[in-house]
Specification:
Shape: globular
Distance between the termini: 5 Å
Number of strands: 29
Radius of gyration: 20 Å
Number of helices: 0
Structural class: mainly beta
Oligomer: single chain
Strand order of the largest sheet: 4-5-6-7
Order of helices and strands: EEEEEEEEEEEEEEEEEEEEEEEEEEEEE
Helix content: under 10%
Largest sheet: 4 strands, antiparallel
Strand content: 25-35%
């Protein structure tokens, strides 16, 4: 999961296109989609990108979503869709600073066998409500229909600053946790195309504390099979960063929340988080990236237990044994994180964005991604590997990568169904998105694919950043 409001100079003058015709897909079964990001039910995972800064019909930072449709050989840039609030079937209208696409999350929200896409627009303002999220509904012909959901309470506090999806009530229906500048809402499923959903609960103030929520992440931490979530924010009373963990269950998220200590004494600027079971003990581990902590950034792993994440964690930096690189000012190690099995050994690995990394002697902020390996002992620096534009086989000219911010957004996902996750990396400032194949030894530059605005049919422009889904 990445920071939802991170700036990126992407699709700055987007020319909105219609849906590219898709080959007919086999009908999906009436059950939860096998892949949350298979939006047309053809059995292939699709690649979705959100861009909060896209200009639409002259409206700056209105925002857009691009979907590159999956094939047997992975996402095909010749088959893509561009979706905005001006797309006929999407609720709302593209307006300046709507930030549609600030955060995107894939999930089968109505259990019809097609993946759906939850898209935030935290800047949406219709005069009565500030901030929405939209569900783009999957179908045999792709993402069709887009239903917007508003705040169930506060109407002017920046609803959908971040969202997370999961069945937190153990009723078989996906729920949504949405945070604002002040509040934490749980909106219960079922969600429908008519815009309705189940009862909503406001969990804030958390334990009576004065907090500023910054992001939310969901996953299965305990062994009960129900989704859980953690809210990360700044505790004004203790002047520390912290997480509040909520365990899902049949009665809804359990209260009071479990407090988890974090790092630093300032706001969670450029923080990121994900949940994955790195040692396969049945408990999900909470990983938080702190890009601006210390000299060059850090991540911290809070091991999962029967009660939730441990209250103290293990830190990793570029000074940790086995981790490539050296901590330097403004490396931003931990700017974004994503977890999946990259080498087919059954253990999730962790991709860590380091977009400020200096490559060579003078390629400042060229950026890199470090992949840490999971295993029986959990996440470790052993056999860690760094990827950058100088990695053999990675498309593009390294001489053009200065100030490229390679690693500003990262995603691990098995897009070709071979059991090994591909590494998707955005170099937001120079208009490049790289896909590195997974192999038995981890991601490789050999056979990597370069996506650009041109290859996606979006015209020529110098930048193309992307918010990648959880």
């Amino acid at each position: 999961m990445r920071h939802p409001l991170r700036g990126c100079a992407a699709l700055a003058a987007l020319i909105v296109g219609g849906l590219t015709p898709l080959a007919p897909a086999a009908p999906a079964s009436a059950a939860t989609a096998k892949y949350a990001d298979d939006f047309n039910g053809d059995g292939y995972r699709d690649l979705a990108l959100g861009d909060r800064t896209a200009a639409v019909a002259g409206k700056k930072e209105a925002g857009a979503v691009v979907v590159v449709w999956g094939t047997a050989h992975g996402p095909d840039p010749a088959k893509r869709s561009v979706i905005t609030q001006n797309t006929p079937y999407v609720a709302g209208t593209a307006e300046t600073k709507d930030f549609f696409g600030a955060k995107i999350t894939a999930a089968d929200m109505n259990r019809d066998g097609y993946g759906d896409l939850v898209v935030t627009a935290p800047g949406e303002d219709d005069g009565s409500h500030h901030g929405t999220f939209t569900i783009l509904w999957g179908s045999e012909s792709g993402l069709k229909e887009g239903t917007a959901y508003r705040s169930p309470g506060c109407t002017s506090c920046g609803f959908a600053k971040d969202v997370a999806v999961g069945d937190f009530t153990a009723d078989g229906k996906p729920d949504v946790v949405a945070i604002t500048d002040e509040y934490v809402y749980v909106l219960r499923g079922p969600f429908t195309k008519s815009g309705s959903h189940g009862p909503a609960t406001n969990l804030d103030p958390i334990d009576g504390e004065d907090i500023k929520p910054d992001l939310v992440v969901s996953g299965k931490v305990t062994r009960d099979g129900t989704a859980d979530f953690a809210v990360l924010g700044y505790d004004s009373d203790t002047r520390t960063n912290r997480a509040w963990f909520y365990r899902g269950g049949s009665g809804g998220p359990a209260k009071p929340a479990r407090k988890i200590g974090l790092l630093g004494d300032s706001g969670l600027v450029d923080a990121s988080a994900t949940i994955a079971d790195f040692d396969k003990d049945g408990y999900g581990d909470l990983t938080v990236g702190f890009a601006r902590t210390g000299k060059g950034g850090a991540i911290r792993v809070f091991k999962g237990t029967s009660r939730g994440p441990s209250t103290t964690g293990t830190s990793f930096t570029q000074a940790t044994a086995g981790v490539p690189g050296t901590p330097e000012s403004a490396d931003y190690f931990g700017y974004d994180v994503s977890a999946a099995d990259t080498n087919g050994d059954g253990y999730p690995d962790l991709a860590v964005g380091v977009p400020g990394e200096v490559i060579g002697d003078n390629m400042f902020r060229a950026g890199a991604v470090t992949v840490l390996r999971g295993g029986r002992s959990g996440l470790t620096g052993k056999n860690a590997h760094q990827y950058d534009t100088g990695t053999a086989g990675v498309a593009g000219d390294p001489a053009d990568e200065n100030d490229g911010w390679f690693g500003a957004s990262v995603q691990l996902g098995d897009l070709n169904r071979d059991g090994k996750a591909e590494l998707v990396v955005a170099a937001r400032e120079i208009g490049r998105l790289h896909l590195l194949p997974g192999t038995a030894s981890g991601p490789t530059g050999t056979g990597s694919v370069l996506f650009t605005p041109e290859s996606l049919g979006l015209g020529s422009r110098p930048s193309f950043g992307a918010s990648l889904p959880d």
